[in-house]
Amino acid sequence: MITISIDPIIFSIGHFMLRWYSLILVIAVGIGLWLTGLEAERKGLNKTEIYDAAIWIMLAGLLGARLFHVIDHWSHEYVTDPIRALYIWEGGLAIWGAIIGGPGVVLAQAIGRVACIITGDAMGPPTAGPFGIAYTNPNAMVPQLGVFYTPMPVYEIIANMGIFALVWSLGRRKLADGNLFLIYVTLYSFERFLLGYTSAYMPVAYGLNQSQLIALGLLVVVAVFLAFRAVTGAKVKPLSAR
Fold it and tell me: What is the pTM of this model?
């Protein structure tokens, strides 16, 4: 069992606050862009065009992440004060929104979850052990200080690192366009569905929470797409063959 006393706010000047959440998110995005640049160069793509598109991808990902969070917490957090939906500096980003709003890099997702561990965001329900995390700083985002919670972000970091290792290895092979992304989406969807049972999110339907339903939806989409390819015999040449 672990107790964290780190203040989620690094420092503040007036109304401005620099939070660990924001700093780690910037680092995660930076590493994601760096890896994207390496892959673009290795595959002979135009890095300038990749980086130009990255700005819009990041904005779309940020908007999607915030939108999903607000929708998920609307009834108990934003319905009485809708303007707070714009207060992104207070924290609150849904990873599914970032993936759907802009292509996600699983390593960046793993790094981003470190912020959740520091701030107490996205923790699971209270636990009696053998592994839990409690918080003592009043700025932590957990419901109650001193209570040990299921460390869902820790489990996701481990799973994301495993997915990254596999996807990075497969990326060295000559796969058809889109196949690597489909592998990533499939693995991540399975991961999120299983980890949904360690989260504290309220069930939405059939005993499943929002994250699990999205995961199932994406798995269905991938299955339909693969079935369409199989039936039509559609083939896509790998980038190296163009």
Answer: 0.74
